[in-house]
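User: Teach me something about this protein's shape.
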Amino acid sequence: MVEKLQQVNGRVWLYPHDPDPAAVRASVALITGGDGSILVDAGNSPAHAREIQQAITEAGLPYPTTLVHTHHHWDHTWGACAWEDVEIIAHASATDLLSAEAKRPWSHQYLRDQVAKNPRLGPSFRARALAMPEWDGFRIVLPHRTFEDTLELAYGVQVRHVGGNHAPDSTVVTVPDAGVMLLGDCYFPPPFHLRTEEDGLDHAMARRLLRERHTWYVDAHSPPRSLAAASAAGPVDET
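Assistant: First, the predicted structure itself:
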C-alpha cells in the first residue's frame, strides 16, 4: 500500500485508500490554501489519522484547520478524535447519525457480539477490529458546524449535499481551480449489511456528476480518475 500523499491536481492531495477490501480504509484528501488546509474525511481510526498527519508534516504542507465529512460512516469519521484544533463540518443529518453511533459501547467484545447476532455485519466489524487495536481515548466526535444544501469554505472550496442510497448525508467537495471533485462514497450502494439484491451503484447520480465535467473525479475507494477515464469506465463499487 502506498502511504504517502499524492498530488491529484493543483492544491489537492490524496492519502490513498487501501486496495485490500478487508481493510475498509478510505482515502483522505487535503486541500491546501494560503495559511492552512481543508481535510476531507478523517481516516478510519486514530492510528490512520496519525499516519496522515505524519505524511502532511513530511510533505511540508499546512496542518488542516477544517475537516469536512463526506458522510458519517466509520471508515470516514473514526479518525476525527485525533485531529486537534480543527472545525468539523458535515451535513445536518450527520449529527443524529453520529450521536447514535457515539452511544454504542465500542470494544472488541461488542464487535464480536454484534456479528454473532447479525453475521452480515462481519466484513465491516472485522475491519473495525483491525483498525482499532486498542480503544483508549477513542470517541466519536460530532460536527461543530452543519449545512443543509451547499456551503462555500475558504480557498474557494465548495461543499454540496447529494444524499443517495449509500448514506443520507453524502456530500461532495469541489475545488474549482484544481478541477477536482471529491465524491466520498456517494454513488455506492448501501452498506453490505443493509443491501438488498436490488441495490447497486447509483449510475444516475454518477452520470449527473460527470456532466459537470470536472477534470478529476475521486471517490474514496478507487484511484483518482480523469473525466475521460471516469466516463469510459463508469463508476466502481467499493466492495
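Now, about its shape. The CA atoms of residues 30 and 82 lie 16 Å apart. The helical segments are 46-59, 74-77, 94-102, 108-117, 122-131, 203-210, 227-233. If you'd like, I can walk through any region in more detail.
User: That's plenty for now, thanks!
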